[in-house]
Structure formats: C-alpha cells, structure tokens
Amino acid sequence: MCGMKKTIFIVLTIILVSAASYWVYKDFFALKPENIGVEDTSQTVGGINYEVVEVGSDTNVTAEADSQFKKTALEIVAMPIVFSVEKSEANKEKIQKEIEELNKQISENYNHLDLLIDLGLKRQSIGDYAGAVKVWEFAGIVFPKNYITFQNLGFAYGFYLKDYKLSEKNYLISLENDPTNTQVYLDLVDIYNFSGQAEKIPEFLKTSLKNAGNVNEAQLKVLLAKYYADIKDNANAIKYYEEALVIDPSNTVIKQEIERLKSLQ
C-alpha cells in the first residue's frame, strides 16, 4: 500500500498527522447502503445469505454459518499463488513460503483477523489484487467491526482496481468502525478527486467533523481549506485554515498558507 505514490495534498503533508496503518453504511455520512451500490447489510458467502456476525464476540455463530466460513476459508487458501509484479527469485521464494504458512494457519482456524490481514497484504504485494480483495472481504464478514480490512479494501478497489464506488463504500465502513483514522480521510478525498467526484469532498468532510469528534478536527479543516483553495474560493479556504490554526496554533505551514491566500485577495 505504501508503494502507491499520490499527488494530492503533498504540499500540506506535514500538517496532517497520519497514523501508521494497514492498508458506513448506517448514518455516518448520511450515505445509506442503497446510495453506494449495496442492496442490503447482509452478506452472501457460498450462496448462504445471513446477517453479519463477529466470531469471538458475544454473538453466537450458527452452525451453518460456521461451516460455510470454514468452507470459504479453505477456498481462499487454495487460491493459486501467481506473481504479477517483478520480484527477485529470492524474494519470490520468501513470499511464497510466507503465504503458504499463512494458508496453513488459516485452514486450521479462520478466526484470526491478523492472519487474514497479513494474507491479503501478501497477495497484494505480488500483484494479486483480486485475491487480496477476496481475503479481506471474507475477513470483513467474519469481523465486521474491524476497520483495517475495510480500509485495505478501499485502497485496493480505489488505487489498483479503479472501482471507485466499492472503494468509497469500504472506506466509509472503515470510518464507521474507527472514525479517528486520519489516513482514511486522506485516501477518500484522493478517491473523490481521482474519480471526478470532487464535489463530494466538502459535504463528506463537514459531516465527518460532526461525527469524528475532536480527534481529527484540525486535519479535516485543513483538508477542507485545501479543497476550497483548489477551487479558488479563497475566503472559505482562509476560514478553515484559521479554524485549524486555533486548534494547532504552532503550525507554521498553516500560517504560511493563510498569508499566501490573503496576499491573493
């Protein structure tokens, strides 16, 4: 994930403190499932339709669902290991062994989120984006309250597979599960820009400010300011930079941006 270069917000990178992370539906951003291409909030695996439950939580998994989870896990670990990106032979051998070991552990017990995250990352690293997506989608069904696999899906769909609707959907789920993860806001703003949907950015960020609490307030206001600066709405850009500066008064980059924009008026 970290290998993907981005061009948006480079100037202001030092303003935004992003947590190191792996690569809704509901009311979180007033985006319902039907608005983002999802027919309902249930999932289908292997033809069985059931409401999502989290293994290991207080919710019991039905015997039928557990059986299907095991079957799906075995199908996932049986996927061929095909390298679609250049790797040295030594690196290929190392990654292949790592994938095989992860497959072995998951086949014995699918109820390990960290193993599923790692397997998806290994698949992604060899250029098997479809395989990575299958692993993380399965993890999201078994562990619907985790934020990492949905963030990873958002990244894979958006920056590799160019399916922006599914990218948006998964990023929003990730934010519902953890609204404090700054990197997701950055990524989703990039997705809106790359997909020609920049008009969604202000509503997304303003609604985010209402739902995310104070944790990301300065960062989100900077993103809003950058959006308005990009469309030459300097008055609103200055407004949000100044609001961010109140929260982070020692930030010299914000001060410089405010001065620059005021000089253009």
Overall description:
- By secondary structure, the chain is mostly helical.
- A hairpin with a 2-residue loop joins strand 1 and strand 2.
- The N terminus is likely disordered.
- The chain has a two-stranded antiparallel ribbon with strand order 1-2.
- The protein folds into 2 domains: 88 residues, Serine Threonine Protein Phosphatase 5, Tetratricopeptide repeat (Alpha Horseshoe), CATH 1.25.40; 142 residues, Alpha Horseshoe (Serine Threonine Protein Phosphatase 5, Tetratricopeptide repeat).
Summed up:
The protein has helices at 63-77, 89-108, 113-125, 129-142, 148-160, 164-177, 182-194, 201-211, 217-230, 234-247, 252-263, and strands at 42-45, 48-51.
